[in-house]
Fold these 4 entries.
Entry 1:
Amino acid sequence: MRKATAYHDALGDFFAEHADTSPYNAYTDRPAMLELAGDVSGAGILDVGCGAGHYAAELAARGARVVGIEGSDTLLRHARARVNGHADLLLHDLEEPFGFADDASFDGVLCALAYEHIRNRTQLLREVRRVLRPDGWLLVSTTHPTADWLHFGGSYFSHDWRDLPVGGSGLSIHYQRMPLETFLGELLTAGFVLEQLVEPRPIADLRQIDEAAYDKLHRKPSFLAVRLRRP
Ligand SMILES: C[S@@+](CC[C@H](N)C(=O)[O-])C[C@H]1O[C@@H](n2cnc3c(N)ncnc32)[C@H](O)[C@@H]1O
């Protein structure tokens, strides 16, 4: 049987809690992506793989109109509680076309740490391009290929599907590791233009809470984040 990539049941509950305060999500990925997003006031944003709604809630608080899509009903439940009616959230499998959205109906699309879970990324990017207006932006973050290589070993150029244990929980997430060339190459082949690439490091607040994690994540890459434009 094909392994599920959406985070169901115990994994969903674990991620919802972990993402709240984790050095990786709360202090590294989210601050970097929100900075790449810039001023979102009045923008229509699609949050692809919205998880427990951390991004959706923050973007809505900054004045955006947000639609979040997510394949796990466990996480959607957490997301609904978090956004408290300030974003529209839909159960949607990212392996399927975006039948819920018209062409050019969003100003921006955000896909945080979900891209590497998707098998049919060609279709996903075609759909993202279709629903973005011309000149709209796309933000994507993913696991850093060097971090995957350090963790899993083998070839840096491997495209194998792996299970990464999460935070001593006994649970693991299932995703495809890929070299930088594949990650960026897919986005450029889909017709997007690269505007910015960052290798996020934790914000200073983490130092007060967890100095060891702060130091570690300032030495060892964890994520990549890119901002692209739909021409
Ligand atoms: C690491 S979490 C990131 C969640 C959120 N973007 C964040 O950064 O807090 C990856 C998310 O992708 C979702 N996901 C993975 N595969 C999916 C699929 N095929 N369809 C819909 N969602 C999927 C998972 O359920 C999970 O919520």
Entry 2:
Amino acid sequence: MHSESAASSPPRINLVDPELYAHGDPFEQWRWLRANEPVYWHPPTELPGFWALTRYDDVRAAYRDAETFSSARGILLRPADHGEDPGGGRTLALTDPPRHRQLRGLVDEWFALRSVRGFEPEMTEVARRVVDEALERGSCDFVADIAARVPLYVICNMMGVPSSDWDRLFTLTSQAFGAGDPATQRFAHLEIMGYFEELQAEKADDPSDDLVSILATATIDGSPLSPEDVILNCDNLLVGGTENTRIAAAGGMLAFLEHPGQWQALVEDPGLLPSAVEEVLRWTSTATHILRTAVRPVEIGGRRIEAGDRVTFWLPSANRDESVFDAPDTFDIRRKPNRHLALGFGEHFCLGSVLARAELRILYHELLHRSIRVEPDGEATRLRSIVVNGPERLPVKLTEGAAARP
Ligand code: HEM
């Protein structure tokens, strides 16, 4: 039920202040919106105005209707003076059907269950190496030293990036999507695009069995993808493949540190790992908002949305909707059912969902089966972003075989 009590003292609503996610409590605003204004017109700030959907059912219904809610004009809020997203109409995430299906059809086999199973031995090896290195150091940042490395190395491997370049791409992605200054971020992002420009040219001339070769040699309706389209899609895969998994894996670890009984339950029954991974996904909901643009007038919850309006889905809010989840603010690794929307829904449902789930499972399994004790070793900080939310740094100390609890 959407509780009445949440109506008593309306908080000031501003969902687009990055400080809210670094130091504030966005759940207070989301709870109030779900109860009182579930289809909320968010006035313009430095960003143009937009509709904010915060209830599970509204988000799911809009997700289901890709005919009305287009991705081609961008899936993240951006200031009007930044212009349209350069990937609009070109990358997997930023195209509408029918082109979206055609693009996705080029690569989706690589992300299917069978294919991901084939990568599991390599993923386990990567997780082991990363955890070994962290153990040697004793103290480390769980985000940068553990959670970030597993997904980055795995997606680089799938894309056909030579292993000698993985550390370079690791540094560049950390700079491009880390907390540094905007100039460093832009420079690192350009370097990544430059890297893929060279790689796609090499793979176009001499293709092998990897994702970049597939994109570089693909045709849609008889026409090859342009080099720019290949580069933008490589960027989409690299960012999609690393950012959310890093934050979810670290956010999940933080949740276990805050709820040691839940880790203990996993130690006692590792069979709970798959449902624990689902709860980590729901709990962390690292993709904060997803944007669509209405291409025709539509009504949601009695509010009329016009063609051209921006409509945002606030996934962490939908995943704590009290009308869908029992005790939504409880971290419960046994939760069933757990039909969260952390990986999206419908047409653009996360391409890497099977991979992401496997990466989280394998990483936690590595810690569990070696009885590695993980303890906080300093203050965790949160990302200052309206796009992704979760830990920016999570200083921890790792000790092997010391105890089962984190
Ligand atoms: C915990 C980890 C992850 C989370 C929370 C996550 C979340 C999401 C969400 C919410 C969407 C939907 C975007 C939309 O509705 O427009 C999405 C799409 C996507 N994700 Fe993930 N993701 C994760 C891991 C991955 C991984 C490992 C990959 C690997 C390549 C990946 C690649 C993609 C791609 C390419 C899309 C666009 C799919 C499309 O538009 O058809 N993601 N992801």
Entry 3:
Amino acid sequence: MDSQAALASLFAPEGRRDPYPAYDVLRAHAPLFQAPDGSWFVTTHALTNRLLRDPSVRVADSADYDGFWPDWRQNRGVASIVLSMLQTNPPDHTRVRRTAAAVFTARRVAALRDVIAEQAADLIRAMPGRTDFVSAFAYPLPIAVICALLGVADSDRLWFRQRAADLTAVLEPISTEDEMRRADVAGRELENYFIGLIAERQKAPQDDLTSALAAGDSGLSGAELLANLVLLLVAGFETTTNLLGTGLRILLEHPAQADRLRADPELAPAFVEEILRYDSPVQLTNRFTSRPLDLGDGHRLPAGATLNILLGCANRDPARYADPHRFDPDRPNIQPVSFGGGAHYCLGAPLARLEAQIAFPLLLTMLPGLALAGEPRLRDRLVLRGFAEMPITTG
Ligand code: HEM
């Protein structure tokens, strides 16, 4: 496979199923190269880290969207994401991110430990002997946790789950018109829901993230508040579902490693980092250069270059990880780029890690006979990689 074919394969369903051989070809071709459509691809761990941390490398923000998609505000799913911190540059990003980080604290995440463990144990106990792991566990756990964090009532969880799933289509460059229409509807419904919740919490604050962000002194505009509440819901939902599904599959494929984790749950942090590295739930992120960049070794980027940063490819870079295609939780210094890097580094990373660190040992100990009961089905997506369905028997 040459580099052209490797690149083309990422845009076809068969290639996406296992993108790692194509990534190897692209990385060997160059750390940075320009595709026929004019955009640039970044393939190595070092360059990914370097570019994500460069202040002159920006995300496409609402002003950029105005330039290439004048009607974007009409799709409320798109608007929620574009108006959120994810698609905002300094100085607004710095202000909004600081506000969100001040309320989404380590203390608040740590306080969720018992909620997560209880929810996970309840879901495991409720599993029938043969079931789909994604719908029985990997989907409901993150949504329950995010709803608890935001202060969304338990009775609204199912409703939320569908809207959040519909809205994630806007994070994909390959969504269909129908998916984009559903994302618009979900965006409108979620905005209305949060408008109601914000009003309630402004009258009677509770110990939740919505109350903290909606407090008068938060410094967020109404539109920023709304967009970032929607972002918190969707950013942490399918990504964490994918981590749980992918992680379980990897553990079941490596039974000796699974036995070690079952015997010693203290190994969970290293296992979760290696799962994140081995098969990243987010495979790709985009940036723009705001000025020409000289990156050394003859690599230069012009101003205005569109970057496709292949996070999943960087995580398997042999220059950073020896024998990168081997699942090895004992490898030293695992620092995957699965949560991004720099100013937009995932705000929910501690929460996602905690959910996974609790879930995997619990699954393995409560269900020692857990096994695959058929071939799992991958979601056909380029950015968010994970299973749509994973038949299991609980032993
Ligand atoms: C395994 C689970 C997760 C993965 C792999 C993941 C991945 C990422 C990545 C790669 C980014 C950066 C995107 C970029 O730089 O373009 C990001 C940003 C973000 N994530 Fe996560 N995420 C996960 C879970 C969560 C959770 C649980 C939450 C919150 C409840 C969350 C909230 C956010 C937010 C708010 C941002 C935007 C940060 C900013 O723009 O400053 N994520 N995430």
Entry 4:
Amino acid sequence: MRDFSSKAAVITGGASGIGLAFAERFGRAGCRILIADIEGQAIESAVSHLTGQGIEAHGHQVDVADFSAVEGLAAAAADKLGNVHLLFNNAGVSITGPTWLMAEDDWRWVWDVNVWGVVNGIRAFLPAMLAHGEGGHVINTGSLASFNGNGDHAPYCSSKAAVLGLSQSLYSEMKAMITGIGVSIVCPGMVATRIHQSWRNRPDDDRPWSDREFANKAFLAGSEEFQGRGMAPEQIAQSTFEAVQEDRFYVFSGANWRAFMEGTVARAVRGENPFVLTWGEDRRPESERGRRPWASANDLV
Ligand SMILES: NC(=O)c1ccc[n+]([C@@H]2O[C@H](COP(=O)([O-])OP(=O)(O)OC[C@H]3O[C@@H](n4cnc5c(N)ncnc54)[C@H](O)[C@@H]3O)[C@@H](O)[C@H]2O)c1
């Protein structure tokens, strides 16, 4: 897609972080934006922030895990923007903890938002995008974690692997049918956003495995500091903008993603075991931890 002027873009999880950076970047190129998010207050701030930059912006509160609510979003988008050209299935949440201790609600919450949120967006929007015939692009937010399951991150990494698979399927369908609809998957490493505070949007009646994510002050301070070392959201938004312009499927950004892929995908091709990367307990000697192609997880920016 080369001409963004007056194109309509719906961005889930658009009220903060990477989604808000998408809104700014594509809005600056001339897109009209609908911010779709679960956080009402954050939607209002995002819309006034964008409007203040001269970008046409609207807001709609939605839980992407709820298909009927996403159908409501599609109706609101048609009402506010007319035909939709760019669909960003970006809303996502994360939780950390040992795979065998995670509660069923942990798994369901992360998969409901990260996987079903994407499926719901595609089912609610794509029929109309295909029908209007003006072309467009679907941008799903994956992660470097789409390519490798990290310790202490099983619900998240497995959900992002699912996003990779479904995005590749959709890409093949859109190309084979000559639809004029492009598909991209955005695969950032660490980005300085509020993803480490995903617990702020958990369903009230959830029963999580531990309260450390939202009540343990030492853990919270550590994750705040860690996440803050990530790349600026604007950087991945710019890479995404260029990829959509050039109709590229994979969107990577930052200095170390090649080394990461070399350490994951290329190892599998060579028949080697996965490297060990965990946010949890690691009793291995320092010498073994240093064998990764990059220095530490913090370098994935
Ligand atoms: N930050 C990173 O390091 C990183 C790395 C790779 C991929 N990602 C992915 O980027 C995407 C955006 O995350 P971010 O880092 O900007 O975090 P963020 O927490 O700043 O933004 C996520 C947004 O999604 C919204 N959201 C959460 N649950 C929702 C729901 N059920 N329905 C609708 N909206 C909901 C939040 O309110 C928030 O505005 C996610 O898919 C995330 O997995 C982030």
